[in-house]
Specification:
It comes from Kouleothrix aurantiaca. The protein is mostly helical. The chain contains 8 helices and 2 strands, in the order H-H-H-H-E-H-E-H-H-H. The protein has a two-stranded parallel ribbon.
Length: 167
Protein backbone atom coordinates (compact mmCIF):
# COMPACT_ATOMS: atom_id res chain seq x y z
CA UNK A 1 0.00 0.00 0.00
CA UNK A 2 1.23 3.45 -0.76
CA UNK A 3 2.03 5.92 1.94
CA UNK A 4 -0.75 8.23 0.73
CA UNK A 5 -3.40 5.48 1.07
CA UNK A 6 -2.16 4.64 4.58
CA UNK A 7 -2.46 8.30 5.62
CA UNK A 8 -6.00 8.52 4.23
CA UNK A 9 -6.97 5.32 6.02
CA UNK A 10 -5.52 6.59 9.32
CA UNK A 11 -7.39 9.89 8.95
CA UNK A 12 -10.64 8.02 8.25
CA UNK A 13 -10.14 5.74 11.27
CA UNK A 14 -9.36 8.76 13.47
CA UNK A 15 -12.49 10.55 12.25
CA UNK A 16 -14.61 7.47 12.97
CA UNK A 17 -13.19 7.23 16.51
CA UNK A 18 -13.97 10.91 17.17
CA UNK A 19 -17.54 10.44 15.89
CA UNK A 20 -18.00 7.36 18.06
CA UNK A 21 -16.75 9.21 21.16
CA UNK A 22 -19.07 12.14 20.40
CA UNK A 23 -22.00 9.73 20.13
CA UNK A 24 -21.13 8.11 23.48
CA UNK A 25 -20.89 11.53 25.18
CA UNK A 26 -24.23 12.58 23.66
CA UNK A 27 -25.96 9.41 24.88
CA UNK A 28 -24.55 9.77 28.40
CA UNK A 29 -25.46 13.47 28.67
CA UNK A 30 -29.00 13.02 27.36
CA UNK A 31 -29.68 10.19 29.79
CA UNK A 32 -28.81 12.43 32.78
CA UNK A 33 -31.07 15.36 31.82
CA UNK A 34 -34.55 15.71 33.32
CA UNK A 35 -37.19 14.18 31.14
CA UNK A 36 -39.22 16.37 28.83
CA UNK A 37 -42.28 15.45 30.87
CA UNK A 38 -40.85 17.12 33.96
CA UNK A 39 -39.80 20.22 32.04
CA UNK A 40 -43.19 21.23 30.66
CA UNK A 41 -45.36 20.79 33.73
CA UNK A 42 -45.07 20.60 37.50
CA UNK A 43 -43.88 17.28 38.89
CA UNK A 44 -43.82 16.93 42.69
CA UNK A 45 -42.61 13.32 42.37
CA UNK A 46 -39.31 14.28 40.72
CA UNK A 47 -36.97 14.94 43.68
CA UNK A 48 -34.25 16.48 41.51
CA UNK A 49 -36.74 18.83 39.88
CA UNK A 50 -38.21 19.82 43.28
CA UNK A 51 -34.69 20.48 44.64
CA UNK A 52 -33.92 22.66 41.62
CA UNK A 53 -37.16 24.56 42.25
CA UNK A 54 -36.32 25.01 45.93
CA UNK A 55 -32.97 26.56 45.02
CA UNK A 56 -34.54 28.91 42.45
CA UNK A 57 -37.30 29.83 44.93
CA UNK A 58 -34.69 30.68 47.60
CA UNK A 59 -32.77 32.96 45.24
CA UNK A 60 -35.62 34.55 43.27
CA UNK A 61 -38.89 34.32 45.25
CA UNK A 62 -38.19 34.12 48.98
CA UNK A 63 -37.33 37.81 49.32
CA UNK A 64 -41.05 38.59 48.84
CA UNK A 65 -42.91 35.35 49.55
CA UNK A 66 -40.69 34.37 52.50
CA UNK A 67 -38.27 31.50 52.96
CA UNK A 68 -41.12 29.55 54.57
CA UNK A 69 -43.65 30.45 51.81
CA UNK A 70 -45.74 32.46 54.34
CA UNK A 71 -45.89 35.62 52.18
CA UNK A 72 -45.43 39.22 53.16
CA UNK A 73 -46.70 40.56 56.45
CA UNK A 74 -50.07 42.22 56.08
CA UNK A 75 -51.41 39.98 53.35
CA UNK A 76 -54.33 40.00 52.34
CA UNK A 77 -54.81 43.69 53.15
CA UNK A 78 -53.71 46.14 50.43
CA UNK A 79 -50.92 48.56 51.25
CA UNK A 80 -51.78 52.28 51.46
CA UNK A 81 -50.93 52.59 47.74
CA UNK A 82 -53.50 49.90 46.92
CA UNK A 83 -50.95 47.25 45.93
CA UNK A 84 -51.32 43.83 47.54
CA UNK A 85 -48.41 42.36 49.51
CA UNK A 86 -46.91 39.07 48.30
CA UNK A 87 -49.34 36.24 49.01
CA UNK A 88 -48.41 33.12 50.95
CA UNK A 89 -47.64 30.15 48.73
CA UNK A 90 -48.20 27.53 51.41
CA UNK A 91 -51.61 26.01 52.03
CA UNK A 92 -52.76 29.13 53.95
CA UNK A 93 -52.66 31.19 50.75
CA UNK A 94 -54.65 30.85 47.56
CA UNK A 95 -52.01 29.45 45.18
CA UNK A 96 -53.41 25.93 45.61
CA UNK A 97 -56.78 27.25 44.42
CA UNK A 98 -55.22 28.08 41.03
CA UNK A 99 -54.29 25.62 38.31
CA UNK A 100 -50.66 25.10 37.29
CA UNK A 101 -50.99 27.07 34.06
CA UNK A 102 -52.30 30.09 36.00
CA UNK A 103 -49.31 29.84 38.36
CA UNK A 104 -46.92 29.52 35.41
CA UNK A 105 -48.41 32.56 33.63
CA UNK A 106 -48.27 34.64 36.82
CA UNK A 107 -44.59 33.82 37.38
CA UNK A 108 -43.53 34.29 33.76
CA UNK A 109 -45.51 37.44 32.94
CA UNK A 110 -46.13 38.99 36.36
CA UNK A 111 -49.11 39.32 38.67
CA UNK A 112 -51.04 41.73 36.47
CA UNK A 113 -51.18 39.09 33.71
CA UNK A 114 -53.61 37.01 35.76
CA UNK A 115 -55.02 39.58 38.20
CA UNK A 116 -58.73 40.18 38.48
CA UNK A 117 -59.93 43.64 37.41
CA UNK A 118 -59.11 46.18 40.12
CA UNK A 119 -56.46 43.97 41.77
CA UNK A 120 -53.07 45.71 41.94
CA UNK A 121 -50.20 43.23 42.07
CA UNK A 122 -46.55 44.05 42.65
CA UNK A 123 -45.50 40.60 41.39
CA UNK A 124 -42.85 41.19 38.72
CA UNK A 125 -42.48 39.13 35.57
CA UNK A 126 -39.75 36.49 35.68
CA UNK A 127 -39.46 36.10 31.93
CA UNK A 128 -35.70 35.65 32.40
CA UNK A 129 -36.31 32.22 33.93
CA UNK A 130 -36.62 29.31 31.54
CA UNK A 131 -39.94 27.51 31.34
CA UNK A 132 -38.28 24.51 33.00
CA UNK A 133 -37.10 26.73 35.88
CA UNK A 134 -40.64 28.05 36.38
CA UNK A 135 -42.09 24.52 36.37
CA UNK A 136 -39.41 23.52 38.89
CA UNK A 137 -40.43 26.37 41.22
CA UNK A 138 -44.10 25.37 40.92
CA UNK A 139 -43.10 21.76 41.64
CA UNK A 140 -41.25 22.84 44.78
CA UNK A 141 -44.12 25.01 46.05
CA UNK A 142 -46.66 22.25 45.43
CA UNK A 143 -44.40 19.69 47.13
CA UNK A 144 -44.75 21.62 50.40
CA UNK A 145 -48.55 21.30 50.38
CA UNK A 146 -50.19 18.37 52.16
CA UNK A 147 -51.47 15.64 49.85
CA UNK A 148 -55.12 16.62 50.38
CA UNK A 149 -54.28 20.21 49.34
CA UNK A 150 -52.45 18.98 46.23
CA UNK A 151 -55.45 16.82 45.39
CA UNK A 152 -57.79 19.82 45.85
CA UNK A 153 -55.90 22.00 43.37
CA UNK A 154 -57.95 22.55 40.22
CA UNK A 155 -56.72 21.23 36.90
CA UNK A 156 -56.41 23.56 33.94
CA UNK A 157 -59.56 22.03 32.47
CA UNK A 158 -61.65 22.54 35.63
CA UNK A 159 -60.41 26.14 35.97
CA UNK A 160 -61.35 26.85 32.38
CA UNK A 161 -64.85 25.48 32.97
CA UNK A 162 -65.20 27.62 36.10
CA UNK A 163 -64.13 30.76 34.21
CA UNK A 164 -66.57 30.01 31.41
CA UNK A 165 -69.43 29.70 33.93
CA UNK A 166 -68.55 33.16 35.32
CA UNK A 167 -68.77 34.71 31.85
Amino acid sequence: MSRRLLNQRNVLIGFMIVCLLALVVFIIRSSTRPTTRSMDRADVTNAEFVAQGKHIYATRCASCHGSNLKGEQGWPQPRPNGVMPAAPLDQSGHAWQRDDQWLFTTIKYGGQATASPGYASAMPAFSGLTDADIWAVISYVKSTWPKHTQDSQPTSKSSLLLRQKKL
